[in-house]
Amino acid sequence: MNAEKPIADPAKREENSVKKMFSRIAPFYDAINRAMTFGLDVLWRKRLVHTLALPDWKTCVADLACGSGDVAAEIAKQKPDAQIVCVDFCPPMLEAAKAKLSKKGFANRAEFVEADCANLPFGGEVFDGATIAFGFRNFRNRGDCLREIARILKPSAKLCVLEVCRANGIFWKIQKLFMGVFVPNVAVLFGGKRNDYVYLAETTLAYPPRADVEKMFRDAGFENVQTRPMAFGFVSITSGEKIEG
Question: Which of 68, 203, 214, 215 stands the most exposed, by the fewest C-beta atoms within 10 Å?
Answer without folding.
Answer: 215
